[in-house]
User: Which sequence fits this backbone?
């Protein structure tokens, strides 16, 4: 039988899978994903253990990097075998998330090597939010959600034990990887009882400067997720006229002045940018994940630009660059997740009337 009919039997015209992908493929992908995740976990732990003594020597062939690259190579082998079995388009059509994850991991590895050569090896918080490391994170997240998507888009009948196990392991791996990169605020890394006198700092945090950095990163992560969540959820059910988001977030920028009597120009500028871009990308059509991610990233870029122009930007390139890239990732992920579970039929019709 030719490859094309095999792919046609595996996928429907809309790309969904009426016939489930055999568990063997999912298990093989899970093994490769796990190896890559272990390598990344070890590498990030090594970076964090350096403290602030940044190493300027290249570590492209370090032991943990080799484990990470081995996992990436395993993913490439699995997808290559899938292409041989079902045709060259099969990985992209049936396993788009895994294909995108492999591409992001490859790009992240190359950019990370160049970054280390130019700026040295990141340490402490820089290892968690370095833009090249976040590209690698994005690739791993895409790999981790690939089996989830395959199982969820398959037949709606109750899952068998193997697929349920794949789903459980994928969800667990996904949460572990994300928690690793948010080690400045997750209880899974440092542990915490959430009580006064019993709090245990997460992963990094050994000085008052560390505490300030941890709080700052946590605030930007939460706030970017919150804003994108509000816009995407509202836009999934209704279609406001042009200018709605600019007004809304422009007014929100006045909140610090009302609450404390102080003007926070950098944040206000960022919120106005967020509102304007939300109007451009989320009024006449359903927000696209990439557009939402770019909107959140632009908000933080505008805020840091104002601080830099003011002359008192204290964070280094890893921190402020990491916040911008993290904003892009959380905006994209939030919008993508909502689009995945929201029926297009529920999206309000196009709005053509402006304010």
Assistant:
């Amino acid at each position: 039988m030719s490859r094309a009919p095999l792919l046609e039997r595996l996928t429907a015209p809309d790309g969904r899978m009426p016939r489930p992908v055999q568990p063997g493929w999912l298990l093989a992908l899970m093994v490769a994903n796990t190896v890559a995740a272990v390598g990344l976990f070890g590498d990030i732990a090594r970076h964090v253990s350096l403290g602030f003594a940044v190493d300027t020597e290249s570590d492209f062939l370090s032991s943990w990097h080799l484990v990470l690259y081995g996992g990436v190579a395993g993913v490439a082998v699995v997808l290559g075998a899938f292409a041989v079995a079902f045709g060259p388009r099969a990985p992209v059509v049936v396993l788009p998330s895994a294909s995108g994850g492999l591409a992001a991991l490859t790009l992240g590895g190359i950019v990370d090597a160049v970054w280390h050569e130019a700026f040295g090896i990141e340490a402490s918080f820089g290892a968690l939010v370095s833009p090249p490391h976040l590209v690698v994170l994005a690739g791993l997240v895409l790999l981790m959600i690939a089996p989830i998507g395959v199982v969820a888009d398959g037949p709606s009948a109750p899952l068998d034990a193997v697929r349920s196990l794949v789903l459980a392991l994928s969800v667990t791996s996904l949460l572990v990887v994300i928690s690793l990169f948010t080690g400045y605020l997750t209880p899974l890394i440092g542990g915490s009882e959430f009580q006064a006198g019993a709090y245990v700092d997460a992963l990094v945090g050994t000085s008052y400067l560390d505490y300030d950095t941890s709080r700052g990163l946590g605030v930007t992560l939460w706030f970017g997720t919150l804003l994108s969540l509000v816009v995407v959820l509202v836009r999934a059910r209704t279609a406001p006229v042009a200018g709605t988001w600019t007004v809304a977030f422009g007014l929100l920028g006045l909140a610090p002045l009302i609450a404390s009597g102080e003007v926070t120009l950098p944040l206000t500028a960022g919120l106005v940018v967020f509102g304007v871009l939300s109007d451009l990308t989320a009024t006449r059509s359903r927000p696209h994940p990439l557009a939402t991610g770019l909107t959140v990233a632009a908000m933080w870029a505008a805020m840091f630009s104002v601080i830099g122009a003011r002359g008192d930007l204290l964070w280094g390139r890893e921190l402020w660059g990491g916040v911008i890239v993290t904003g892009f990732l959380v905006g994209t992920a939030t919008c993508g997740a909502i689009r995945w579970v929201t029926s297009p039929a529920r999206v309000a019709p196009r709005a053509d009337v402006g304010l």
